[in-house]
Amino acid sequence: MHPASAFRWEDREAMRALVTERGFGTLFVATPDGPRVAHVPVVWLGEATLGLHLARGNGIVRHLDGATAVFVVQGPDGYISPDWYGLGADQVPTWNYVAIELEGRMRRMEQDALVAQVDAISAEQEARLAPKAPWTRNKMDGALFDRMTRGIVGFTLEVQAWRGTRKLGQNKPEAARLAAAEGAEASGRRGIADWMRSV
């Protein structure tokens, strides 16, 4: 994460909320074959427990149970032009962003826990699609659902370290940061602009 203390983010509830909002991220693990990465959907199963799943054929699967891994969620980001600050010529371009790293121990799930995880992810995501009637596995043939879920493997990540960065121009005067937020929004980066205005 960014080494500057001005950008350190330690609000775990806010980080949990961003993970929930995004619902997807990147899992990193060291293996005997070298570093490996997987892109996975996630759901909170407890205060510091994430549930995730991968295709059974994904080569990373055989290395996960018991491993220490890092799960990364990327929030909004955007290029910041030095011209936007209104502070004169001696400014440099930068990139503002929000990101979370969650480090912890991976544990393989039993099949019934995997099914519950799929149900939880679906329920969380389907709720966002209202007023559409939510999809549930009851809409599928039970045998087909069982075959489909046997093609994936579920894991939990017990989070032991939370590392967050909110690099939003906090090191600039407020007027300059807000001016840069306007520039970011005008360039199509409304997400990072909104975060820049919120600090």
Automatic annotation (TrEMBL):
Species this chain originates from: Sphingomonas populi
Source domain of life: Bacteria
PANTHER family in alphabetical order: PROTEASE SYNTHASE AND SPORULATION PROTEIN PAI 2
TM spans (from-to): none
InterPro entries: Split_barrel_FMN-bd, TR_PAI2-type
Protein name: FMN-binding negative transcriptional regulator
Record-linked Pfam families: FMN_bind_2
